[in-house]
Write a structure and sequence with these properties.
- The radius of gyration is 23 Å and the shape is globular.
- The termini are far apart.
- It is of the alpha/beta class.
- It contains 15 helices and 18 strands.
- Helix content is 34%, strand content 19%.
- The chain has a seven-stranded parallel beta sheet with strand order 3-4-2-5-6-1-7, sandwiched between helices.
Length: 452
């Protein structure tokens, strides 16, 4: 059994929440479990702790599968698992990249847990890229989203390919009528842990909910003024369509806001760059479709802005769940046009948020992000990047923020006040005796958004 205290220390946490303690105990004691808890409450850690305890680290076979509705949630789950430092080998599989590359990684790593989207996992199993013989545990994360995205057939198909499974864990932020009859619970009825409501029957939330009135049907000016008043505090601005995301991002960039654009129509590398830009604090605003409503964990995120009204109460809840994560507070701003009615959401009390001049100029983020055209395949490490920027770039280590090294490239956040001088020193210079392209991701993102 892994030491929970050391895992919490690795994650920078003091203790488990009541929900997590109850979930860990319940999952340890039961074969089938349904875990219902609000977004941002730490469900991922709640099921990963008992799951990793059950893994036999001496065996090279896949022993557990975690199904995720989106690649972003799958990657987020993998990040949490890796940060726990339990010694369990895990791999993430999802569409949008060659399955053959993943197959090679499976053969090289011999993962004990595979996290992935249903379609890609079915594909690997059908091609016999890994054996299901040793799989005893199946986790279906964001179960409600699976059904919303019509993954029922994919999930049921996968269940038939894992005949030796002994338990199934469902995690969701929404209670659904399909849960009791879910095909994965063939052995026994599931034990249920519901933290969606408090004892007094109200939704457990640390979020303040505001109504922002827009005098025009087109809400661009209202959104810009709201962002100006919110200053440098990070905000996700939700829209309902990809085309709207591009239009809103383009307009806000033109108005001087620091914006990162995120939606399902972008290439995977562009999506990763957009999230890295926002996570690192190199952009104050993430303009996104519903894609960012699940599996995106930005600890410092304070504001959620609904440019378009959510499709239903569940969508509102999941959008709001991006803020007030763990022990922090957050705000939700619903922009309502002149012809729109304020939706009625259970247990949500709205306050008015009037927009009054003077409006400050758009705030600049503290950080800027660099793209370095070398990565893990070039044996480039975080230490190499820090050494290069400090020695050749002549900046201090404290002026370097989040570093993310991928297979073929790396992203690194540097303090914006040092960017201009830094670029003068490093442009054209070699890193680890390798020539490479180095450029500002913010400039590249902004150019792509405006170009579209």
């Amino acid at each position: 059994m892994d030491n929970i205290d050391s895992i919490l220390q690795n994650l920078g946490l003091q203790q488990l929440s009541d929900m997590q303690e109850n979930a860990v105990a319940l999952i340890r004691a039961n074969r089938n479990v349904v875990l219902l808890a609000p977004t941002g409450s730490g469900k991922t850690l709640a099921f990963l702790l008992p799951l990793t305890e059950a893994i036999d680290k001496t065996r090279d076979e896949v022993q557990a599968l975690i199904l995720s509705p989106t690649r972003e949630l799958a990657l987020q789950t993998l990040n949490v698992l890796n940060a726990m430092k339990t010694g369990v080998r895990a791999l993430c599989c999802y569409g949008g990249r060659p399955a053959m590359d993943e197959h090679r990684k499976i053969n090289a790593l011999h993962p004990q847990i595979i996290i992935g989207t249903p379609g890609r996992l079915n594909d690997h199993i059908d091609k016999q890229n890994f054996s299901t013989a040793a799989i005893r545990t199946l986790v279906v994360d964001e179960f409600d989203k699976m059904f919303e995205l019509n993954f029922q057939d994919e999930v049921e198909s996968l269940l038939g390919k894992v005949p030796q499974r002994e338990r199934c864990i469902l995690a969701s932020a929404t209670n659904m009528p399909q849960i009791p009859t879910f095909a994965g619970f063939r052995n026994q009825p599931p034990a249920m842990l519901n933290f969606l409501v408090r004892e007094n029957g109200t939704v457990d939330t640390k979020i303040r909910h505001f109504i922002v009135r827009s005098e025009q049907k087109d809400k661009l000016l209202t959104a810009s003024r709201l962002l100006c008043l919110l200053g440098a505090k990070q905000s996700i601005l939700f829209v309902n369509y990809r085309e709207a995301a591009e239009r809103v991002a383009q307009w806000l960039i033109h108005e001087g806001h620091s914006v990162s654009l995120f939606h399902g129509g972008l290439e995977q590398t562009d999506r990763e760059a957009a999230l890295n830009l926002f996570r690192s604090g190199s952009a104050n605003v993430l303009v996104s479709t519903e894609l960012a409503a699940r599996g995106i964990d930005i600890p410092a995120l304070q504001n959620v802005i609904h440019y378009h009204l959510p499709a239903n109460p569940e969508a509102y809840i999941h959008r709001c769940g991006r803020t007030a994560r763990w022990d922090t507070d957050g705000n939700s701003f619903l922009i309502v046009g002149p012809e729109e009615q304020v939706p009625k959401y259970p247990d949500v009390q709205f306050e008015q948020f009037p927009l009054q001049p003077p409006y400050p100029t758009p705030a600049k983020p503290e950080w800027a992000m660099l793209y370095i055209g070398r990565g893990k395949r070039d044996k480039l490490s975080k230490g190499d990047i820090v050494g290069f920027l400090c020695k050749t770039g002549r900046i201090k280590a404290t002026d370097i923020g989040v570093i993310d090294v991928k297979e073929r490239y790396a992203h690194v956040a540097v303090r914006r006040s040092e960017l201009k001088q830094l670029m003068l020193h490093i442009i054209g210079e070699k890193i680890k005796k390798m020539t490479t392209r180095i450029e500002s991701v913010a400039q590249k993102q902004s150019h792509n958004a405006v170009k579209k």
